[in-house]
Structure formats: structure tokens, C-alpha cells
């Protein structure tokens, strides 16, 4: 049986490549650049869902004999704004799992080409040269998915985490949506009807969900890591800043990752679920083709919450062996999806997320409750405005950081644990004895945030800070290195600009496929709307405006956008429910 699973796993990549060729042959994949205007897809049903769902092109394309379950629209604006823009809405009158499946179908139909590109850029070579690792990986994932399937069946009536409206589980809704996307993604021309179902199966769409989990799974399974891929240097930067006079509360995030992940999609899901049961029935987030959760992470919800994270390394690898298991745990991407949907408050968000800790994608989460902030308010709340959660294998800890915002007007996040117990157990404290790089409040980005947050008064000044990287001049980017500075020390990193033959105090200060990919910010002045200001491009460098892909020096990166246009308030018409 183990050998069979390995053979199935090895065949997975080949099968997806074959399907992709079939799409091209059938002319189902449009030529690049042809979808710069919005394309609409309606998901229709004749009678009950048992008769199958039918995708039809158009905003209101269902005829008199069919009811509309969902509608989606997508525009591939990567070459003008740096983002694809996807919006999916479902309609009442249908079971929640049918709505979820239909939403997935709409996304799969609309973003098929981008899913294919993202798979090729990030997943296709996962197993190349790593046979034992992939055998272990797929054995672990198979057992995990079997446990999820069984638990959904057994706990739907007893456990609120697994139970949802009409005795459906929210875990089930997540996987129903993913199954709908996969079935639509692989649908052949002429296959008009797709029957809603739920699958807990290994396939390329599922593997896309695991992008963050693999940081830790790869270490747990002893995969030989490429130094350019290891997230020790930091995966993201984030900042919560209250403007002078409490006139605004700015919540911002920069995703830092490999340049092969720049194929970005800005998403909005609007489900017709009961808003009392699901306060976050509408979510808007920066994401990736085929991914149901942000993975940056940066998400706004109709419940008035905003959540972001930055990733922390785990140096104490015995934690993996002790606590990472295929059963009784739920991966981070599912837990964040559920927390965004079900939480009414920031405290409730971190409490929900802490359940079923998988010890994978170990992050510091920051969750802000915008319902508690009013622009120009005389005094900030004393509690429950902002909570953080930090996770390591086997343990999570939460803190109400509202006191910190009241004391200092900002809270930064830069891939170093704030909570002392997390720092100690994960191995950061031991590393910090030798290098400030690993010490909260003393790393380069910590010092830059502390120095420059006082300059932030509005979105323009915040943008300058979050896109900042003046590594050849900034005193905090200096190191005992050759050359004597590192481009990994900016708020938006540019590891690709470090010389490949340099010498470094810390390995992750050096050259690698790693850069700030974007910038997102949420304001409070229009707090009842899910609005963003976004920018997608590698960061400005110091006193110059170098933003061209010509400066990128990472092998294997063949096509990047030079765009730095903003997608400003793109979802202005979508109001929050609070």
C-alpha cells in the first residue's frame, strides 16, 4: 500500500501537466493578456444540486429553467496593476455546501490559466530529486486527509468547531469549495454538468493550499533545504499604526517571498451564509491563484476584523518530532479560513485559531477589531482592540496588545517572536545571544520601525515606510559582512540584490530568491467597507526608484511585471455587516 501511494504521488505532477496540455488543445485556456477586462461566470442549477451545476459565461446567464447559485468575475490586470482581481458571490436558497462548491467552480473556471501558472511556478518541482521526502510527504498527507474525512463525519453533531449551520461543518465547507475549484479546473470542454461533492484527496489544488505549511513540513521530514528558500531571514513585514490624534488606524503588510510567487490575485468571497452564524461571510484578501486563504496572510472580514501574520522560524527541531502528527491537527490554512469566517472579535479569532494546532506555518498573528475604533476618538479602548497569537509545534500563546498601542501608537511584526516563552522554546533566545538579528526590538527591521513609525501620518507616509529599503546607506542595514550591509534588512527585502559571492554574519542575510512582493494597507476612515490600497512590485531602493525586473538576478525567473500601479479601493461597493 505504501508503494502504491508513492507511485500515485509521483504520478501527480505528470497528470497535471497532461491536463494542462489538454486545456490548451481544447482552446479552453485563453491567450495571456486576453482577460484584462472582467469576465463573468454564472453557476446555474436545474432543480436540485443532484442534477448538477452548470457554468455559463455571463453575469446573469442562467435561463428560465435554471436558478443561479453563484456568480464570479475576474480580470487579469497583472500587467497594469500587478494583480488579478477576483470576486465571487453566492446566493441564498441553497445549502451552504452547495454554495461553497459553486463558489469554487466559479473561481476554477475564471482563473484556470493563473492556477496553471502558479502550479508551474511553485509546486511542479516539489518532488524533483527528493523521492524519499515525497514518499514520506504523501504518506503523511494521505493519513491526514483520511482523518479529516472521518472527523467531519463523526463530529458534525457534537463539536462546534466542526459543526455549522444546518449541521454542516465549516471544515466541510472549506473542502467543498476546494473540490468545486478542482472539478472546474479539470473540467473538459463539453462536460456541462458537475455534481457537487466533497473530496479529501491529494491533487494539485490541494497542494497549492500547503505553501506555508511546507516551510515546516520540509524541516520535519528532513528535506534538504535550499538556503534561498528557507524563511529564517523573514517572510513578511507588518505594522499597525494609529495616526496622530487617532484620526486613522492603518493596518499594513508586505509579503516577502520568492520572485516566482509574484503571480498575485486579489480576492473577495461573498457567501450568502447566515451572518449571525458566520460574521465573516464576506472576506477580502491578498492571495494566489488556486489558494482559498491568503497565505501572506492579509485578510479583512465583514465582521469588522483584519488579520495579518509574519512567519517565525523554528530552530528547536525536536518540537517537530514531538508534536507534528497527521491526526488530531488541522493545518494553518484551514484554521485561518475558519477563524476569519466565525470570529466576532479579535479575542475570539485567536481562540478559534489556537484549536487543533498543526505546528506547521508557525506565525505571529495580529488581529485588529475595527469595530472598536472610530477615527478621531478621544481615547483608544483599553482592551480587545488588537490581539496577537504566536504558534510553535505543540504550543500557542495569545496576548491582548491594546496596552502597547496605547503606550506607543504602533505595533510592528518582523519575523521575530514577541512572547518570551515562544522565543525560548523555538530557539530564538539562544540565537539572540549571538546575533541581534533574532532579538525582538533589536533586529534591523525592529530598529527601522522604531525610528520611522513617528513619520507615519497617512497612507502616503506609511507607503514610504513599508516599501523602504536603503540598505547601502541605512545604519541598521550594516553588518559584519562583505559587502558591509545586507538588502535583507529593509522593511521590504531585496535578497536578490545581495552578491552571490558575499560573506555574511548570518546565512539568511545573503543572496537568495527573496524580495518584498507587494504592499497592502487597510484604513479606518471608511471602516464599514472592505477597502484596500495595494501595490505590487519589488520595492523602491533607497533614494532611487529602481522598480524594473531588469534588476532581478535570480536564476529561473523568466517573466515579471514592472507594474507598480495601485489597485485602490477596488471593493468599495462591498459593505461590512457591523
From TrEMBL:
Pfam families: Phospholip_B (PF04916)
InterPro entries assigned: PLipase_B-like
Chain's gene name: WBGene00092289
Protein role: Putative phospholipase.
Signal peptide feature range: 1-18
Keywords: Glycoprotein, Hydrolase, Lipid degradation, Lipid metabolism, Signal
Source organism superkingdom: Eukaryota
Catalytic EC class: hydrolase
Membership in a protein family: Belongs to the phospholipase B-like family.
Name of the protein in its database record: Phospholipase B-like
GO terms, biological process: phospholipid catabolic process
Amino acid at each position: 500500500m505504501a508503494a502504491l501511494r508513492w507511485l500515485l504521488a509521483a504520478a501527480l505532477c505528470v497528470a497535471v501537466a497532461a491536463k494542462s496540455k489538454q486545456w490548451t488543445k481544447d482552446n479552453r485556456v485563453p491567450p495571456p493578456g486576453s482577460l484584462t477586462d472582467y469576465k463573468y461566470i454564472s453557476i446555474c442549477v436545474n432543480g436540485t444540486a443532484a442534477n448538477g451545476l452548470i457554468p455559463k459565461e455571463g453575469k446573469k446567464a442562467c435561463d428560465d429553467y435554471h436558478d443561479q447559485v453563484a456568480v464570479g468575475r475576474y480580470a487579469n490586470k497583472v500587467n497594469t496593476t500587478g494583480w488579478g482581481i477576483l470576486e465571487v458571490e453566492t446566493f441564498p436558497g441553497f445549502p451552504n455546501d452547495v454554495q461553497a462548491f459553486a463558489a469554487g467552480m466559479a473561481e476554477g473556471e475564471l482563473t484556470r490559466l493563473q492556477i496553471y501558472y502558479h502550479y508551474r511556478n511553485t509546486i511542479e518541482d516539489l518532488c524533483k530529486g527528493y523521492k524519499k521526502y515525497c514518499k514520506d510527504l504523501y504518506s503523511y498527507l494521505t493519513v491526514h486527509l483520511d482523518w479529516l474525512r472521518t472527523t467531519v463525519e463523526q463530529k458534525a453533531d457534537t463539536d462546534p468547531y466542526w459543526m455549522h449551520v444546518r449541521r454542516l461543518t465549516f471544515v466541510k465547507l472549506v473542502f467543498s469549495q476546494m473540490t468545486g475549484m478542482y472539478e472546474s479546473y479539470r473540467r473538459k470542454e463539453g462536460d456541462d454538468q458537475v455534481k457537487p461533492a466533497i473530496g479529501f484527496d491529494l491533487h494539485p489544488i490541494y497542494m497549492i493550499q500547503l505553501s506555508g505549511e511546507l516551510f515546516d513540513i520540509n524541516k520535519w521530514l528532513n528535506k534538504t533545504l535550499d538556503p534561498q528558500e528557507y524563511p529564517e531571514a523573514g517572510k513578511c513585514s507588518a505594522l499597525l499604526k494609529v495616526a496622530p490624534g487617532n484620526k486613522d488606524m492603518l493596518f499594513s503588510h508586505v509579503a516577502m517571498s520568492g520572485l516566482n510567487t509574484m503571480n498575485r490575485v486579489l480576492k473577495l468571497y461573498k457567501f450568502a451564509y447566515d451572518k449571525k452564524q458566520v460574521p465573516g461571510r464576506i472576506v477580502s484578501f491578498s492571495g494566489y491563484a488556486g489558494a482559498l486563504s491568503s497565505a501572506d496572510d492579509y485578510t479583512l472580514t465583514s465582521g469588522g476584523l483584519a488579520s495579518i501574520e509574519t512567519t517565525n522560524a523554528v530552530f528547536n527541531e525536536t518540537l517537530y518530532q514531538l508534536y507534528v502528527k497527521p491526526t488530531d491537527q488541522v493545518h494553518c490554512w484551514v484554521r485561518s479560513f475558519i477563524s476569519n469566517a466565525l470570529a466576532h472579535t479579535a479575542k475570539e479569532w485567536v481562540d478559534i485559531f489556537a484549536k487543533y494546532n498543526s505546528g506547521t506555518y508557525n506565525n505571529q498573528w495580529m488581529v485588529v477589531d475595527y469595530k472598536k475604533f472610530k477615527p478621531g476618538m478621544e481615547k483608544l479602548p483599553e482592551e480587545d482592540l488588537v490581539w496577537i497569537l504566536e504558534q510553535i509545534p505543540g504550543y500557542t500563546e495569545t496576548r491582548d496588545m491594546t496596552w502597547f498601542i496605547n503606550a506607543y501608537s504602533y505595533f510592528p511584526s518582523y519575523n521575530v517572536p514577541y512572547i518570551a516563552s515562544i522565543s525560548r522554546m523555538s530557539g530564538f533566545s539562544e540565537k539572540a545571544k549571538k546575533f541581534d538579528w533574532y532579538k525582538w526590538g533589536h533586529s534591523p527591521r525592529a530598529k527601522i520601525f522604531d525610528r520611522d513609525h513617528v513619520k507615519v501620518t497617512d497612507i502616503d507616509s506609511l507607503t514610504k515606510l513599508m516599501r523602504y529599503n536603503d540598505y547601502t546607506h541605512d545604519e541598521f542595514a550594516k553588518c559584519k559582512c562583505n559587502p558591509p550591509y545586507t538588502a535583507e534588512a529593509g522593511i521590504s527585502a531585496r535578497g536578490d540584490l545581495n552578491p552571490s559571492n558575499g560573506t555574511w554574519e548570518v546565512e539568511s542575510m545573503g543572496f537568495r530568491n527573496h524580495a518584498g512582493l507587494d504592499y497592502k494597507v487597510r484604513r479606518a476612515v471608511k471602516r464599514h467597507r472592505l477597502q484596500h490600497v495595494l501595490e505590487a512590485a519589488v520595492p523602491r531602493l533607497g533614494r532611487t526608484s529602481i522598480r524594473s525586473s531588469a534588476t532581478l538576478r535570480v536564476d529561473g525567473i523568466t517573466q515579471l511585471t514592472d507594474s507598480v500601479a495601485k489597485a485602490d479601493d477596488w471593493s468599495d461597493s462591498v459593505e461590512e455587516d457591523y
